[in-house]
């Protein structure tokens, strides 16, 4: 037989954990799933626990061996930390999930934040109508942020063709 205090503690524990599970930061779409991140591959790719590779939708970052590549990777590591909310957008030609990421505690759009801070290019080819990213890129470029501090940064899609 449990004491009333034990029952109260168990009830509190169950209710508080249910509340935390449903406590999303504002701005995160309802369809976004909370996921744990295993590692960051580079500035625009993460690997989830369970080995699902995710390519960030609408952005392209310098390759690891390209100038600014390691800084872009570090920036994504700082934004992602250990978990994110994700909306699956598509699957790319390499079988990776293409996703829109949101910060797990603050709710901001990680993909756009990478562009706004100058860590990534807006990948217009795959996100043609994303005016917010276009504006972020223009602002970052004008301010000389991140990769835009270079006089003539080479887009990764050109770097890969070399």
**Strand order across the largest sheet:** 1-2-3-6-5
- How many helix segments? 5
Instruction: Give the helix level as a range of percent.
Output: 25-40%
Assembly type of the shown chains? single chain
- Counting DSSP E segments of at least 2 residues, the number of strands comes to 7
Mean pLDDT: 88
Unreliable stretches, pLDDT < 50, 5 or more residues?
5-21
Provide the gyration radius in Å: 19 Å
Q: How is the biggest beta sheet arranged? A: 5 strands, mixed, barrel
General shape: globular
Structural class: alpha+beta
* Spatial gap, N to C terminus: 73 Å
Give the strand content: 15-25%
The helix/strand series, from N terminus to C terminus, equals: HEEEEHEEHEHH
Describe, in plain words, how this protein is organized in 3D.
With 162 residues, the protein is an alpha+beta fold. 33% of the residues lie in helices and 23% in strands. The protein has helices at 4-21, 69-80, 110-116, 131-143, 156-159, and strands at 33-42, 45-48, 53-56, 59-60, 83-91, 97-103, 121-122. The strands form two sheets. A five-stranded mixed barrel has the order 1-2-3-6-5. A two-stranded antiparallel ribbon has the order 4-7. β5 (83-91) and β6 form a beta hairpin. α3 runs parallel beside α4 (131-143). The protein is globular.
